[in-house]
Q: What sequence folds into this?
């Protein structure tokens, strides 16, 4: 379960959003709003990658509030700002991030992750040679690396071809059935029949 | 996996990146080589009076090590910000482990610079070190302090503009006590005695720097 209470975020100038509260226990949550309404920032705050100006976010497993590594592993995130080590191959990137996250890098497991996003054939190619669509697929693989019960996907369909879109749709549907998935997008077709909508910039 | 495994994974990643690109290593070693060569040509082995040689060479060594470090050590954090990989790293590892991993890599890089600079100074300026064990201890302990402070400051300035200038300006006053102790200890070791007193000061500095860096890691590296 994730709960946001009275969240606000302001950079220089007026607040992006203020007094934003919601709670999600399961299913698909769509985060919508015009450009610049704060969708990316909100997902970064939920992923503990940015601090809110006010308010708080709690992530719980049962009655236990998660923090530190438990929370980091429980929340998967992908966004347009996420980049990988250009000199490393896709599998080397996932192996390093897995080890740095405290999980052993099992070759078969990493190969499966890349196969799930259609990158099996490019596993040993350096990320610097990847197209924007391939980078997006790698972002999705990264977000699922620790099998998180809560998945935050910011513009997950950007730069993807129809096969890539189908892969993300399947991942979102699977997560929706077994956990919580947030999808932030301007495109209504990126989230079919969400269970909940968080609308920014109203 | 233990925290040590994760720290090692981060240090090994930085080392692998450096081995593939050689950006920091090349600039550091080029700076060190240039400085040693210029000093040796300008001063030469006979330009230094024997009684001043240990002190002058000790100061030269640490000036070269400090500016070599300032040239390359901030790269470890700045590169993560510049290339956008900082988010991936922040998502998987806490700031304290990231800082420790990058400190380890920077420490090893510093030792590599020292391994090249000391023999070069020794040959070109005919500098004879009386207590090799004393000098090794000074390099190991003061090098650790320099790596900790440099890495922490790199995390702090990584998101600022003009990171290199900012790094040198901020690091100089913070590293001054360490550098002065290291120069005194190096001169003492070169003279043949083990610099116990100066090393105690350096160890105290290392301890204080480690505690401060650990406590402030999150504030420096996370949003």
A:
């Amino acid at each position: 379960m994730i709960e946001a209470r009275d969240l606000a975020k302001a950079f220089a100038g007026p607040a992006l959003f203020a007094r934003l509260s919601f709670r999600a226990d399961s299913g698909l949550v769509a985060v919508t709003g015009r450009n610049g309404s704060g969708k990316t920032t909100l997902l970064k705050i939920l992923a503990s990658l940015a601090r809110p100006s006010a308010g708080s976010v709690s992530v719980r497993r049962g009655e236990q509030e998660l923090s530190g590594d438990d929370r980091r592993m429980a929340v998967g995130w992908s966004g347009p700002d996420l980049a990988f080590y250009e000199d490393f191959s896709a599998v080397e990137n996932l192996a390093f991030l897995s080890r740095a996250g405290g999980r052993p890098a099992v070759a078969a497991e990493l190969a499966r992750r890349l196969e799930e996003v259609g990158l099996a054939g490019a596993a040993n190619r350096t990320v610097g040679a990847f197209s924007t669509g391939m980078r997006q697929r790698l972002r999705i693989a990264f977000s699922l690396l620790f099998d998180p019960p809560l998945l935050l996907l910011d513009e997950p369909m950007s730069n993807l071809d129809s096969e890539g879109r189908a892969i993300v749709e399947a991942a979102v549907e699977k997560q929706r059935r077994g956990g919580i998935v947030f999808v932030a997008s301007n495109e209504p077709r990126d989230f079919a029949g969400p269970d909940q909508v968080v609308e920014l910039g109203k | 996996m233990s925290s040590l495994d994760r720290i090692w994974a981060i240090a090994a990643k930085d080392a692998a990146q450096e081995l593939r690109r050689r950006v920091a290593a090349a600039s550091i070693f080029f700076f060190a080589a240039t400085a040693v060569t210029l000093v040796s040509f300008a001063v030469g082995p006979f330009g230094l009076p024997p009684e001043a040689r240990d002190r002058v060479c000790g100061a030269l060594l640490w000036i070269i090590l400090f500016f070599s470090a300032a040239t390359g050590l901030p790269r470890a954090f700045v590169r993560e910000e510049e290339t956008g990989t900082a988010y991936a790293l922040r998502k998987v590892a806490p700031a304290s482990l990231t800082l420790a991993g990058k400190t380890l890599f920077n420490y090893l890089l510093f030792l590599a610079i020292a391994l090249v600079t000391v023999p070069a100074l020794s040959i070109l300026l005919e500098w004879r070190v009386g207590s090799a064990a004393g000098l090794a201890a000074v390099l190991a302990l003061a090098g650790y302090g320099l790596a900790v402070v440099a890495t922490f400051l790199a995390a702090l300035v990584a998101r600022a503009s003009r990171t290199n200038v900012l790094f040198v300006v901020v690091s100089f006053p913070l590293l001054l006590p360490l550098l002065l102790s290291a120069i005194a200890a190096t001169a003492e070791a070169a003279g043949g005695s083990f610099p116990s007193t100066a090393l105690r000061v350096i160890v105290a500095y290392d301890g204080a720097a480690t505690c401060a860096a650990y406590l402030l890691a999150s504030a420096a590296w996370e949003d």
Summary: The mean pLDDT of chain B is 87. The interface with chain A takes residues 1, 5-6, 9-10, 13, 16-17, 20-21, 83-85, 87-94, 97-98, 101, 222-223 of chain B (CB under 8 Å). Chain B has one domain: 3-221. The longest helix of chain B spans residues 95-124.
